[in-house]
Design brief:
195 residues; alpha/beta; Rossmann fold; 8-stranded mixed sheet; 8 helices; 8 strands; 21% strand
Length: 195
């Protein structure tokens, strides 16, 4: 998946539900399209059907299959390998795949992405789902970007000390369709770091 010339693929997955995977995916897509001016597709590769709801709210149409274009980003609700194949041949510069909650093992497709973003919530009530994936995260150290939208500094420091995992705090951004300066700087840095 990562080997197609000129196309960047990014897998985005979380340690469990409610880690901010879809919000972050939409933020990154809007950043890439609106600020880097790169044609971007977003594939929903999880059972949540969030993009169907997004299409209904933003366009008034309920779509099971994509693409649904919102602010020049093409969203593919309930997608799979056939949509990925289509995107690889449609002139997209970036393909973001929202894997949702990772489960016990990362999807093979996640591991094949050129970039891998793993989100965890560092709140006390979510830390166990994160720690249950520590062996996988340790294997991903060095090739995955670890991010947290929620949680405290102490939990971040403890994960770094005990497992060598550095989680970066995603700046607060209540609206995934509006990229403020701090968020733009952050997204640019983590996107460019993985190239």
């Amino acid at each position: 998946m990562a080997a197609v010339k000129g196309i960047q693929t990014a897998g985005i997955a979380g340690a469990g539900p409610g880690c901010g995977v879809t919000h972050f995916t939409i933020l990154m897509a809007n950043y890439l399209t609106g600020m880097e001016l790169e044609k971007t597709a977003v594939l929903e590769w999880n059972p949540n059907h969030t993009f169907r709801e997004l299409a209904l709210v933003c366009t008034g149409r309920e779509e099971d299959k994509g693409p649904v274009s919102i602010l020049e980003v093409d969203y593919f609700p309930s997608s799979g390998p056939e949509d990925l194949e289509l995107c690889l041949h449609k002139g997209y510069e970036n393909i973001l795949i929202d894997f949702g909650s990772m489960g016990d093992a990362p999807a093979l497709e996640f591991l094949q992405c050129g970039r891998k973003f793993f989100l965890g919530a560092l709140n006390e009530w979510k830390i166990l789902s994160l720690l249950s994936r520590k062996d996988r995260m340790i294997k991903g150290r060095g090739s995955w970007t670890f991010l947290a939208a929620f949680g405290g500094k102490e939990a971040k420091e403890e994960l770094k000390r005990r497992f060598g995992l550095s989680f970066e705090q995603i700046p607060y951004s209540p609206d995934a369709f509006f990229i403020e300066r701090e968020m733009a700087v952050f997204l640019r840095r983590i996107w460019k770091e993985q190239r």
